[in-house]
Amino acid sequence: MRRDGAGPIAMLAVLGILMTVGGCGAGASPAQDTPILLVIKSEGARDGFVRSDGFVRVVGNGPAVGDLDAARRGLGLRMFYSFSLREIPADAVILSVTLRVFQEGRLGRPFASLGELRVDHVNPGDSLDPADYAGNTLEANIGSLFREFVLSYASLSVDASVGRDRHEGRVRSWFRLGFPRDSNLDGGNDALLLNDGENSRRSHKLPLLEVIYRRP
Ligand SMILES: [Ca+2]
Ligand SMILES: [Ca+2]
Hints:
The structure is a single chain. The protein has helices at about 5-15, 110-115, 160-165; strands spanning about 20, 35-40, 50, 55, 65-70, 75-85, 95-105, 115-120, 135-145, 155, 170-180, 190-195, 210-215. About 10% of the residues lie in helices and about 40% in strands. Strands 1, 2, 3, 4, 5, 6, 7, 8, 9, 10, 11, 12 and 13 form a 13-stranded antiparallel β-sheet that branches. The two termini are about 25 Å apart. The protein has about 220 residues and is mainly beta. The chain has one domain (about 40-90, about 100-205). It binds calcium ion (CA) (2 copies). One calcium ion binds next to loops. One calcium ion (CA) binds near residues 44, 48 and 58.
């Protein structure tokens, strides 16, 4: 299964297609325990960014994470992704869940200035609001997605977060991407450019949740 590219997986996500992987040996018919890969793209109408001054944007406008010191010294920016869990069958036995995000570009030196990019498991509810910049956290820092700039996808295992959302009856999983420092107060922007569910960067490298499960 391809892990380092985006094209085929992203296309499957857009089409909402299930794809089987691994499982049976040659000549065998698919068994109940054959792993099934479900690729879910972040919901464009819900994902977006929140700034430390309370500005919220869920449609385009340059998805990114980092600081916007050039606009206003100390202004921070965090990115949110939202994945519907409705396509996962209720009786699915989850084998793994992976968050995949593509780095589209950068402004300044985000990693040297702000640290490594962390992911929080959050619960903003149906939509983003200013309080989500730092609040509504279910678990802070579930892992680091990026430590340096590379024009590629990076992956983070989010099994426990999605398992918790399902167990507690939530219909979507939300993740917040942010640096440990809001800003390095240098007057220059230091930000990592990302894509969103609307494909605002036009790269078709969509933020994805890859769920591998089997039927009971
Ligand atoms: Ca959006
Ligand atoms: Ca800066």
